[in-house]
Design brief:
Largest sheet: 19 strands, mixed
Structural class: mainly beta
Shape: elongated
Distance between the termini: 75 Å
Radius of gyration: 29 Å
Helix content: 10-25%
Number of strands: 27
Strand content: 25-35%
Length: 510
């Protein structure tokens, strides 16, 4: 094809006359790079009515052929295209259609009436910044995924109550969207980040299956007075909600909670579940093998002291819950890989005496352990607390530690304690911050250990170390058969001694 005429002939005859053509996977990006060629093309390509799969990236025309009847079409993907409308409104025989993908079609103004698309499962309009309105979608009872990411001019949501199988609704970057319509009960993921939303109505508390809620970079001041009723909620992102003031009665079983950059946040509290049943809340989930739990409140400088205490106490409850869960499900071996972890962060420069009975003004500490007087097999569990000035970090931060456990027999066990997750300092905070850290390799089969020593350090992306100002360790036991916890209370001198205040350097590899 050496000229425009030959190319246009191909558009007109190339597909229509290919008998039994069912599948087209094509792209015309080269047209966008050919001076003047795209502008000279007119009309549209002729497509066979028998077509079932059409993926045409950079489709160059403003519409599909007016003669094309999509009655057999199952998948339509026209990403990065010049499309303004799809097909003539008279075509409603769309019963076979399962997926429409129109991402980055910036000239798209309207989605055609989809009354006949009763089996449509995926509607993807990501980056369609010319899209102002959506037609009525409540009849789409098979719709599972609606992606409106960065449809920046979309002003209102369509009625979705009838879309009873809808699971994922993503409206990230819909800056003109200020109000959320009512949603069906089965939604599991709701992303309203970077929208004009100012209030999340309590009406969404009926979304009993909601697992992920993202409200980051919005104008919300309060989030659901009854948020604890969202019993399936596992991920809550409120980062950079600068007007947010209170977070009350948060579920204790959140896997991921990000409130970083919420400069006005003052009050944080959690629901008061019975501790003995807390660990069971994690077990009903289809969790991935690698679990990374986090609670991030970096740069939340308005937090009250009571809120900081609540955050610290809940982190310890989560650690106890996770340790019971991991031991019960998998057991712990000496060669256990670093896969599962917890990271909690908030502004401050003190290691809490209530949660961490062993503390040091350095980046190391030594402690003595006395037996608890039980003949049952058990696991020794510890978690750590570090204070770091993030201003010194310059980049993202990773924390590392080494420990050595010494048994009454003289046997020594050396290990590492690190969280397999980098803290993104560049976007999350400056100044002194407290970090509570835990990972699966901080659980060990107890061999009547009498002493423990720890040494910690932090480094940025370049591998450059920076000073840790303080550290602390919390220790407890988990019974290997009943999975019950025995706490080591602060001040219980009959069981623990702490010689870290003498300043002796810990050498884990000695």
């Amino acid at each position: 094809m050496n000229d425009v005429e030959d190319l246009q002939l191909f558009w007109f005859y190339g597909f229509k006359n290919i008998l039994n053509l069912r599948y087209i996977d094509f792209q015309t990006k080269f047209l966008l790079k050919t001076d003047g060629l795209l502008a000279k093309l007119t009309g549209s390509v002729s497509l066979p009515d028998e077509l079932r799969y059409l993926r045409w990236t950079f489709y160059p025309f403003t519409s599909l052929s007016q003669s094309f009847n999509p009655k057999e079409l199952v998948v339509l993907k026209l990403s990065y295209s010049n499309i303004q409308q799809l097909w003539n409104e008279r075509y409603q025989d769309l019963v076979n259609l399962r997926t429409i993908d129109l991402q980055e079609c910036s000239t798209l103004r309207k989605i055609p009436n989809l009354r006949g698309a009763i089996n449509l499962r995926n509607l993807i309009c990501r980056g369609c910044d010319g899209l102002v309105d959506l037609s009525y979608l409540s009849h789409l009872t098979s719709l599972e995924n609606l992606d409106l990411t960065f449809c920046i001019n979309l002003r209102r949501m369509p009625n979705l109550l009838g879309a009873i199988n809808l699971k994922t609704l993503v409206c990230c970057g819909c800056e003109s969207l200020v109000q959320l319509s009512e949603l069906p009960d089965n939604v599991t993921k709701l992303d309203l980040s970077v929208t004009g939303i100012e209030e999340v109505a309590d009406s969404i508390q009926h979304l009993v299956g909601l697992r992920e809620l993202n409200l980051s970079f919005t104008r919300v001041e309060n989030v659901l007075s009854n948020i604890s009723k969202l019993e399936s909620l596992r991920r809550l992102d409120l980062s950079y909600c600068e007007r947010l003031k209170t977070l009350q009665e948060l579920p204790q079983y959140l896997w991921r909670l990000d409130a970083s950059g919420c400069m006005s946040l003052e009050k944080v509290s959690f629901t008061d579940h019975n501790f003995n049943s807390l660990h069971s809340l994690h077990d009903g989930d289809d969790a991935p093998q690698e679990e990374h739990s986090s609670m991030l409140f970096s740069n939340c400088r308005s937090l009250s002291q009571d809120s900081i205490k609540n955050i610290s106490a809940n982190a310890i409850l989560q650690i106890q819950s996770l340790s019971q869960r991991w031991i019960r499900r998998e057991g712990i071996s000496r060669e256990e890989p670093i896969l599962d972890s917890l990271l909690c962060c908030f502004p401050g420069n003190e290691v809490s005496a209530n949660e961490f009975e062993h503390r040091s003004e350095n980046s190391w500490l030594n402690l003595k352990i006395s037996p608890i007087g039980s003949s049952r097999s058990k696991f020794l569990v510890f978690c750590i607390c570090l204070v770091a000035d993030l201003t010194l970090a310059e980049r993202n931060v990773a924390f590392f530690g080494k420990y050595q456990l010494t048994a009454a027999s003289g046997e020594k066990l050396t290990g590492v304690c690190m969280v397999d997750e980098t803290f993104h300092r560049a976007s999350h905070g400056n100044g002194d911050h407290v970090f509570i850290l835990f990972s699966k390799n901080m659980i060990r089969i107890d061999k009547d250990y009498k002493e423990a020593s720890f040494e910690f350090h932090a480094e940025n992306d370049n591998g450059e170390e920076f000073k840790l100002e303080k550290c602390g360790v919390h220790v407890f036991y988990v019974d290997a058969e009943s999975y019950t916890i025995t706490e080591m209370r602060h001040g219980d001198e009959g069981r623990f001694g702490n010689d870290s205040e003498g300043g002796a350097t810990c050498h884990p590899n000695a």
